[in-house]
């Protein structure tokens, strides 16, 4: 199922992320002091075609870890998500799946936390490249263009 560019998947693409950081660093070394350089654009159109969402097995595992870090206990997650409604409570984080392919709509809290998790993945990827550039060009202006609300086309 298509869901994301390789850059944003949480695992096992550490090599991809490392290569993106290496390229950003090399570009900063070569171009960073060029007088015509005004700013850096790290990526293009995060969010276009829902490319910030991954429904892979690795994303599922990373989402569970993210939830555990966020809530600490499964009881806190159940309370925050209001899972008592329709007997949707979880006994462990291992039971929490991604909010897709459900019989009916996933709970709004589940979907919101998945979006927050996905946003964190994007920010982590962007931050790693920005840090590589700033290590060489500390005053650099670094941006990208995000299309988060642009999820369908006519």
Automatic annotation (TrEMBL):
Top-rank taxon, per record: Bacteria
What GO biological process terms are annotated to this protein in UniProt?
carbohydrate metabolic process
Q: A GO CC term?
A: beta-galactosidase complex
* UniProt KW keywords: Glycosidase, Hydrolase, Metal-binding, Zinc
For this protein, the record's Pfam families field holds: Glyco_hydro_42
Annotated SUPFAM superfamilies: (Trans)glycosidases (SSF51445)
Q: Domain Glycoside hydrolase family 42 N-terminal, which positions?
A: 15-154
Query: Which is an annotated GO molecular function term of this record?
Result: beta-galactosidase activity
Protein's name according to its UniProt entry: Glyco_hydro_42
**What's the source species for this entry?**
uncultured Erythrobacter sp
């Amino acid at each position: 199922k298509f869901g994301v560019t390789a850059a944003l998947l949480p695992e096992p693409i550490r090599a991809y992320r490392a290569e993106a950081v290496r390229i950003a660093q090399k570009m900063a070394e070569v171009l960073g002091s060029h007088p015509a350089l005004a700013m850096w654009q790290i990526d293009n159109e995060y969010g276009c075609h829902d490319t910030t969402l991954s429904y892979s097995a690795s994303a599922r595992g990373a989402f569970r870890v993210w939830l555990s870090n966020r809530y600490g206990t499964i009881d806190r997650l159940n309370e925050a998500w209001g899972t008592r409604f329709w007997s949707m409570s979880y006994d462990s984080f291992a039971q929490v799946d991604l909010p897709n392919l459900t019989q009916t709509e996933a709970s709004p809290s589940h979907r919101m936390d998945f979006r927050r998790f996905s946003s964190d993945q994007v920010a982590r990827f962007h931050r790693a490249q920005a840090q590589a550039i700033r290590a060489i060009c500390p005053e650099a202006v670094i941006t990208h263009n995000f299309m988060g609300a642009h999820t369908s086309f006519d």
